[in-house]
Amino acid sequence: MSLRLNAIQNLSNTDNKGVVSDNTKTVMDNTKSITNVFASSVFTLEVARQYLSNDAYKALRESIRDNQKIDRTIADQIANGVKAWATSKGVTHYTHWFQPLTGTTAEKHDSFFTIKSDGSVIDEFDGGALIQQEPDASSFPSGGLRATFEARGYTLWDPSSPMFIMQVGEGFTLCIPTIFISYTGDSLGFKGPLLKTTIALNKAATNVCHYFDKSINKVTATLGWEQEYFVVDEGLLNGRPDLLECGRTLFGVVSAKGQQLEDHYFGSIPERVYAFMRDFEMESYKLGIPLKTRHNEVAPSQFECAPIFENVNVAVDHNCLLMDIMDRVAKRHNLRVLFHEKPFAGINGSGKHNNWSLGTDTGINLLSPGKNPKSNLMFLTFFVNVIKAVHDHADLLRASIASAGNDFRLGANEAPPAIISVFVGSLLFEVLEELQTGVTNGKVFDKHNDHQRMDVVKNLPELLLDNTDRNRTSPFAFTGNKFEFRAVGAAANCSNAMTVLNTVVADTLVYFKKEVDMLIEKGEKKEQAIVTVLKKYIASAKPVIFEGDGYSEEWQQEAAKRNLPNIKNTPRSLNAMITNKAKDLFERNNIYSHAEIEARYEIEVEKYIKNVKIELKVMRDMVATQIVPSSIKYQNVIVQNILGLKQLGYLDNTYKAQDKLLQDISLQLSTLQQLVGELEKATQVADTKASTTDKAIAYCEDVKDKFYDPIRTCVDKLEGLVDDQFWTLPKYRELLILR
Ligand code: ADP
Ligand code: MG
After folding, report:
1. pTM for this structure?
2. Which domains does the chain have, with CATH numbers?
3. For the chain, is the Cβ count within 10 Å smaller at the N or the C terminus?
4. Residue 560 pLDDT more than 50?
């Protein structure tokens, strides 16, 4: 029996469903309440208070708050406390947990256990082991930053993200969040640059805050991600080499009951998935991931979860951890979770909305309109600066969300287009309009002159309260008290998008302050100077504001008129990373050196090529070893049938239908063969390109764009012709309807 038919049969078999809900208990088990388990595996500051000396505790706290360095003797003390806590919880090993540019997380475990020179056995963990480890970096992408003879890389402790204990089966490991750098100090991971942006942004934003409120000492970028994902039965997935190796289906007829009925969104969650969700949520709570919502998404078998927002560094770590946990827990339930941006054609793909804002140490959300005119001007200042930053660096933001997977989703009438625009809502649109032009229609501002205008901003919060309209088609939307960067792909590490967003906002704020200060020096009043510069910024950034339907054809044309970049594929969009403008931007904000950003570009381009190559290989294999054989097998049955009818003396016209079917299948098979041959040639041409950039563009535009769809069309036609019993690949209807 084929894997497919076997898996289908297994679907109704309860033993196959892994851990399912236990409904025999009628009273809730209190030990499992979220508040009881939350962060129970995390070395929180409260735990630190118990296990550390006063000095060590203070040093750790300050390092979290102000990025203070921790010296070696204090680190020894912290390591000791951490070891005591961890071993009390059954931990035997520790690891530096880091995020290399492969996109997944990495770890290398060492045990605490050591043998001393006198032969005695002890647990050992000192400040050195806490602060730095030296994993072999040679198998991680470096984009040429690391000479092959110098394979060493270093991981360095990030005290601002708490340590945690990861449980896998019976094993408990202490995980230390770290940044990953090369021997020469160049950044090789995601976390290092992100942390640098938080420093730049804090400085720039705090300085601007001081125009309004001198008591603010720190500004933190906050992130609340929304993770979309698909869940499929593991048995069925094993029958799909494309899902296994590429994370998405390369072929498959869209099932009759796709998402047309719109009955999945917010519908009741299937029991098997529900059991999986509760399981991964519990694991997440233990690790301090503050998950808040879960629900069905638009497509069948698609779901979403979202946490309460946190500071961007911890939020990114938590998203990486969550993806890892979900992957692991799914297997316990004989399920598989798919984070790919477009696992199935014809239905929605998955994104990861990045809700982003700026919070002060005094508890103010800078993107939330305040209670009085002064705080509203502060809100407008940050609001306008963000819009200006997005306008000025739209190409770089586009590059930050580029990936082979996301290419299938962006602009496919389900996700934001590749054009970066900002949605602000009708009321704020008017506010900006009136602030800029000084012409008031009386809705927001009562008076015409700038001075009076300040007073009138006070009406803002109440007005906004009932006016936060929604626009699902915008890649970057203001949603009342935060911006939502919606174009981020579901599989992405949020760091890329957040690093760029933080940098461009920090940079814009620095210039803003310079301009305002210049006007103040010339004798303008502070508020007046701020309004003057804001007016200028609104005027220049206005083209990026779009309130209409981002999916529409008209917007493509309108955006072109406005000169907004509309870069449709990854290889071309990545170029924005290495323009002189971008390199200087990153350098002056101390995020990436020129060499570092060039290396990152190289890594992204190579990743893209590798991705297409894997898909091509899987595509050829599936055609040769599954699609063609299934089709021929079925043809043989038809041939037998025709021969039999002939033998019995039936006339030609009695087997006309069979004849037609034979021809239809043959036509698809020969077209398929021809396409695969041409594809081969196009690949060879792509491989002759000298630079990786040109190679990636050729793989995208001359291979992928030209051949993916026609090949798929042939295969899908065959799926519609060949006897279901002969078809070895699990079909969409089976994959998408979980039982
Ligand atoms: P929706 O699906 O309507 O966009 P959700 O409730 O699913 O809304 O997600 C909203 C996300 O925005 C949550 O992750 C939430 O924590 C986050 N969020 C709310 N306020 C902020 C903020 N100030 N900064 C960052 N993220 C925020
Ligand atoms: Mg959202």
Report:
1. 0.94
2. 32-188 (3.10.20.70), 198-606 (3.30.590.10), 607-737 (1.20.120.1560)
3. N
4. yes
